[in-house]
From TrEMBL:
<protein>
    <submittedName>
        <fullName>Uncharacterized protein LOC102810377</fullName>
    </submittedName>
</protein>
Amino acid sequence: METLIVGDSILQNIKPSRVYRNTHVRTLRGSNVPQVTDYIMSVKSSNTTNVVLHVGTNDIDSNISPDAIMREYNRLTESVSTKFPEATIYVSSILPRRNKVNFNIIANNINARLQSMCDGNTKLVFIHNRNISIRHLSDEVHLNDRGTALLVRNIKDVIGPKLGINRIRRSVNNKYPQYYSGERAKISETYHSTQYNNLF
């Protein structure tokens, strides 16, 4: 079971080891939705069962209309389904930009439409990034360390249950949330702590 996380430079600081085993992160700097589609069709792996898509910010910045972006996003998800018939597709919401009011209005509109698209398809899951704001940016666009940690947590929160891993509430004695294995994921305590106990 492999997980592929693919998208634009927002992903640049995500380390695969901080997500789950067999996770691959492909950052396509400056990419738009059609370019991610082209990349998906070039992937050779046949064992991918989870695909996380994080793209769209550069399309908005290039003044592509929301309708055109949604058409390309539908083509992207259809391409993923064709390439990986058994995969669940996770659509990560577009993040805000600093000092870009009109951009953020459009991003909110597209996010609502992306969520609606996912709600109507059992193969698609929408990832809410509502806990990430402009204070989590290192510049006008990219995430700082805390923002990256939150994005990783949001991804793990939706993928984890499929792997039999569920995040529980933070303990007052623990700095970070802990993870436990579900009934379908019997793992040793040592393995548990080294692979799944890290939030970041």
